[in-house]
């Protein structure tokens, strides 16, 4: 099933990019939501100071990906940051059986044959302990009210936010760059891309966050957003969908969350 969510041969369309002067590598692939909307997909590899590696939102485990991982170091953490970005966890867990699985509540039930070592719940939304080496480098904030149960991570040494579906930055130019397909082609892609981007005042993405993403508990959503605002000095944002925001991440995050700051 997972392979059908990607366009083309993953081996041929994969874009591996090392982010300069950081221990971070992104694995970028084409991805079609509902088989029609071009939003792209991205895994993020982070080499910890201990030498171990964490992968967030795993993508297809191609030969090139395996080679890259082998060059970086042992996979110690496989992180599914929400209940949507988990379809390839099984393949990575099988390939790296020593890795510890991390994800939100509700996800272990989708993978009953796997052991999740660290499960985020609403009881500890901020900086749930994982392990000493992980906690030294990452802060986290859990949004249990989000329909996808989002966990957002902050790599402190590089001031990098890593997130799945909290913010989009379409079009997915890098992710479709080797596919031979225009990342902005198609009426549905144009419509969705017009909403889920970070240009201008982001009014449509603000509306999505307000009316859809936070409708279960807007006060709780605002509380988490404010914690990020006050505690994380974000420079870079790595979303799963759309291009990486290389600089000015804090101002973009604050712009997206402005309504929550104002009303709560």
UniProtKB/TrEMBL annotation:
Coiled coil: none annotated. It comes from the Eukaryota. Pfam families: DUF4336 (PF14234). InterPro entries: DUF4336, RibonucZ/Hydroxyglut_hydro. This is Metallo-beta-lactamase domain-containing protein. SUPFAM superfamilies: Metallo-hydrolase/oxidoreductase (SSF56281).
């Amino acid at each position: 099933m997972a392979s059908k969510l990607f366009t083309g041969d993953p081996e041929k369309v994969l874009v591996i990019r090392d982010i300069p002067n950081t221990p971070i590598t992104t694995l970028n692939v084409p991805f079609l939501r509902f088989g029609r909307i071009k939003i792209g997909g991205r895994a993020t590899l982070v080499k910890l100071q201990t030498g171990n590696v964490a992968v967030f939102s795993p993508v297809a485990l191609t030969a090139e990906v395996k080679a890259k991982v082998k060059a970086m170091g042992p996979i110690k953490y496989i992180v599914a940051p929400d209940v949507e970005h988990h379809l390839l966890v099984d393949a990575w867990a099988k390939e790296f059986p020593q890795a510890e699985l991390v994800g939100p509540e509700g996800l272990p039930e989708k993978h009953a044959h796997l052991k999740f070592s660290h499960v985020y719940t609403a009881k500890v939304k901020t900086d749930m302990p994982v392990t000493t080496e992980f906690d030294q480098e990452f802060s986290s904030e859990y949004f249990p009210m989000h329909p996808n149960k989002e966990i957002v991570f902050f790599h402190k040494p590089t001031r990098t936010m890593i997130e799945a579906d909290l913010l989009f930055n379409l079009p997915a130019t890098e992710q479709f760059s080797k596919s031979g397909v225009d990342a902005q082609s198609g009426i549905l892609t144009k419509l969705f891309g017009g909403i889920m981007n970070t240009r201008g005042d982001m009014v449509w993405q603000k509306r999505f966050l307000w009316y859809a993403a936070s409708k279960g508990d807007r006060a709780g959503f605002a509380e988490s957003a404010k914690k990020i605002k006050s505690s994380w000095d974000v420079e870079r944002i790595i979303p799963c969908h759309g291009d990486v925001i290389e600089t000015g991440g804090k101002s973009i995050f604050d712009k997206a969350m402005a309504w929550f700051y104002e009303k709560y």
